[in-house]
Write a structure and sequence with these properties.
Layout (H helix, E strand, L loop, with lengths): L1 E5 L3 H12 L3 E5 L3 H8 L10 H11 L2 E4 L2 H6 L3 E4 L5 E2 L3 E2 L2 H17 L3 E5 L7 H13 L4 E5 L9 H6 L4 E4 L3 H10 L7 E4 L1 H31 L4 H8 L23 H14 L5 H23 L4 E5 L14 H11 L3 E5 L1 H5 L4 H10 L7 E2 L2 H5 L4 E4 L4 H9 L5 E4 L13 E3 L3
Parallel strand pairs: 1-2, 1-4, 2-3, 4-7, 7-8, 9-10, 11-12, 11-14, 12-13, 14-15, 15-16
Antiparallel strand pairs: 5-6
Helix pairs in contact: 1-3, 5-6, 9-10, 12-13
Length: about 425
Amino acid sequence: MKISIFGLGYVGMVTAACFAKDGHHVIGVDVNKNKVDLINQGESPIIEPGLEDLLKKGVQSGQIKASVDSEVAVMETEISLISVGTPPIEQGQPDLSYVLDVCKEIAIAVEKKGTSHVVMLRSTVPPGTLEHCHSLMQEVTKKDLISTAFNPEFLREGTAIKDFDYPPYTIIGTESKVAEQALRQLYQKVKAPIVVVEPAVAEMIKYVANTWHATKVSFANEIGRVSKAFGIDGREVMNVIVQDDKLNISSVYMRPGFAYGGSCLPKDLGALLYYARSKNVFAPLINAVPATNNLQINLAVEKILKTKVRNIAILGLAFKPNTDDLRESPSVYLIKRLLGEGCQIKIYDPAVYKANLIGTNLNYIQQNIPHFQNLLVGSFEEAFTDTELAVATHNTPKVFQALEQASPKIKILDLVGVFSDPPKNREYEGLAW
């Protein structure tokens, strides 16, 4: 394919060399003439292992050339890729002016060319940017000539060529079949699954990926500081932690939903924070975990009260399904708050209903909801009688089936992702989706 790449910084340069290696013809566009001249001589303007060799081969074979002329680049290509910078300004928001300027340049050239063109945005931008860019370009062309897609990159400096060739996936954020097909053809030599999502989702994924990487670095460093205060090598601790790919390095716990609870996570996190404080170790990331967990419970309470209903069924009391453990259950805190607001509550949790609660478990629930046994019901039918709102705190097939069969008059607040898609003909809301 014939590609023009706008912005020959780190991402643009690596992308150009790798696409040329895969057999495509690339015209790189940059406002810096010195950089353009270097590239046309086969010299890389950045340091990256293996890049200069690929660049030289691409230039010598005629598959890579660079220019300062954006119009010529668009005229000679079928896809334009935008990889200009989005540096932070003021309070941290990205400066999108370079992206928008390039969009206008491309649109003006496409209008002159008069034929269809695909624009692929690769710069890191906030959700909604591609939609804005598409509207901007449509205003210029006055015709439906431009199809757009957002294609985030996951290149690490030092291993960028390997990362390009073997990514975890190729994400195509588009609602255009034309753009999707063009990008599928563009990436046909890259051995990775292709994931097609809405543009805003793709834009958010890039931010989330980098934020998650930063969080992992910070978490490991905090564990290192706390471990050293105990006289332990934090590297040894984390070396063992990452060997667990069933829980620690996996998709488990990585889904938006309700707050955590139970007898282990709150207790052990609290203990670690206590010892960090006692040893004068500052661990702000770990310290923020209980706070953000409580925010999830507060958000659920706010959404329930916003409905202005008073007769509520809570589907799940224990901290997770198929157990009677009520200790630190977020459902207990939720119900306690709602009772304080004057709500009438029914609770359906078969494991708790059948259990003979004793010891610490019984003491805990009696201290928080003394009359909890009067709120428990033995079936979904009882739970839904005279109910205005059903709140799902457990994600089980039984809960899904019961909610599907419940009266359409009953509103649903889903805290745990029981429904992947909103049920039809129902008033439904998810906690974070």
